[in-house]
Amino acid sequence: MSRVLGSAPAPLLRRILLQGKYEALTMLRNGEQLILAIVLPLLALVGLTVTPLLDGLGGSRVDVAVPGILALCAMSTAFTGQGISTGFDRRYGVLRFLSTTPLGRAGLIAGKILAVLAVLVLQVLVVGVVAFALGWQPTAAGWLPALVLLVLGAAAFTALGLLVAGTVRPEATLAITNLLWILLGALGGIVLPAERLPGPARDIVHFLPSGALGEALRDAFLAGTFNGGATLILLLWTAIAGAAAIRWFKWN
């Protein structure tokens, strides 16, 4: 009998790694997303360090600012960047095409999550270098809980980004994600602690993923403590947004 020669698909893990690499490079090569992921967080870090907005919050300006900036990085990449990218991939039929390849839908989503984590690592490195140059002195015991919280925050924001990208038109995704980035960045407790926000915002930010992540990272880096309440909020947002995305995501 003659053998039928054919090329078998690569192992699933390799497919996911290659997709994650492609997604990460695409995000970093996009000028708008690079500004959101790196430039604006760095500008916010310098601005908060040279102004008195964070004075009197239990640490130096840069010590209080950096956790919020890292949380902003997670939101920029996982929510705004991934949401916009996925929305336009859906518009141009990329999602529908890739979902029918050996990569599959699960592999495609896994690749997107991997890309978010890869870009987030780069963001932490860049922000960390600049922050140390500005005099950042984080509590050593806070690094482990902070890294866990960053991953959890990225998961929550990725789920939210995919929910938006999979349920509304790409143009609406662009508007919604950018608008929420501005609102949550300014009034969502992610950069400015709740103590610095006006009354109505101060009462609700603890229940937002932005406020929970910002508060938990400040507790980790300033005091070396693990904020269980904020972690529970992030887990709930991840579960609810993830379930909603699975239920209502439209691939075309």
List the helices and strands and how they pair.
Layout: H1 12-29, H2 31-50, H3 61-91, H4 94-99, H5 104-133, H6 143-165, H7 170-187, H8 199-204, H9 209-223, H10 228-248
Mind explaining what this structure looks like?
The chain is an all-alpha fold and 252 residues long. It has one domain (12-248). It has helices spanning 12-29, 31-50, 61-91, 94-99, 104-133, 143-165, 170-187, 199-204, 209-223, 228-248. It is globular, with a radius of gyration of 19 Å. The termini are far apart.
Order of helices and strands: HHHHHHHHHH
> How large is the share of residues in beta strands?
under 5%
How many helices in DSSP terms?
10
Mean pLDDT, to the nearest integer, reads 90
Helical content (DSSP H or I, runs of 4+): over 70%
Provide the structure class: mainly alpha
**Rg measurement, Å:** 19 Å
Describe this structure in a few short sentences.
This protein is mainly α and 252 residues long.
Structural key phrases:
252 residues; 0% strand; 75% helix; disordered N terminus; mainly alpha; single chain
